[in-house]
Design brief:
heterodimer, A: about 70 residues, alpha+beta, about 45% helix, B: about 140 residues, 4-stranded mixed beta sheet, 5 helices, about 20% strand
Chain lengths: ~70, ~140
């Protein structure tokens, strides 16, 4: 979560939303949240658990690249 | 009854010593949707904001203040927007207690300083983004 927040402050392109999974069961179902923390980037790239900064960045860049390809 | 203990308050005041620019905590509520959680969220935000004169709060209604909700991209309650010198895109859905609480405090600090704790390589890569990135992080209080 901390990385997502700091990335949002670093770039005007990035938005970070922390979602309390138990309070939003429908959202959690829609995003198939089975374990937390679960990170979903642009509704496409997703992973469970905390990642080191470089790997988190790779996931962001993958999500960005798949946008460009569209 | 207060949500934060006096020990919590002491610790948070210490962290808030780093605050630089003013931060506004914009709360979205809607009593018809989730009255108890919205009330708890408003109380928590007020208690946190009271710990620094650099913090302000604003409580909006998701159903009434639709223009603001749309501008912030908020469509759920309870929600918090952490806004610093600009809107950095920091959002919280649900009452940020437990694990999320430390993230709320961290979001306030980074929105106030405007200085993300990231490696230079990360900042450079993010500066090159050409499309919008929406990161959702699901967690639970424990």
């Amino acid at each position: 979560m901390r990385l997502a927040q700091h990335m949002a402050v670093a770039s005007e392109r990035v938005r970070s939303t922390a979602i309390e999974a138990t309070e939003f069961p429908e959202l959690s179902r829609a995003y198939q949240v089975m374990a937390v923390p679960k990170v979903v980037i642009n509704d496409r790239v997703q992973f469970e658990g905390a990642l080191p900064e470089a790997e988190f960045l790779s996931a962001v860049l993958r999500a960005s690249a798949s946008d460009v390809e569209r | 009854m207060a949500i934060l203990t006096s020990q919590n308050e002491q610790e948070i005041r210490k962290v808030f010593g780093q605050l630089k620019d003013p931060v506004t905590l914009i709360v979205f509520s809607q009593s018809l949707a989730a009255a108890d959680l919205c009330a708890q969220n408003e109380q928590l935000v007020r208690e946190v904001a009271a710990l620094s004169d650099k913090l302000g709060t604003e409580v909006l209604n998701l159903a009434i203040d639709r223009g603001r909700a749309e501008r912030y991209g908020v469509d759920q309650v309870p929600a918090i927007v952490v806004e610093g010198a600009r809107d950095y895109g920091l959002r919280f859905y649900g009452v940020p207690l437990g694990y999320e609480f430390s993230n709320l405090i961290d979001a306030i600090v980074v929105a106030s300083t405007g200085e993300p704790a990231l490696a230079e390589a990360t900042k450079t890569a993010l500066a090159g983004l050409t499309s919008d990135i929406d990161i959702k992080v699901f967690s639970t209080p424990t």
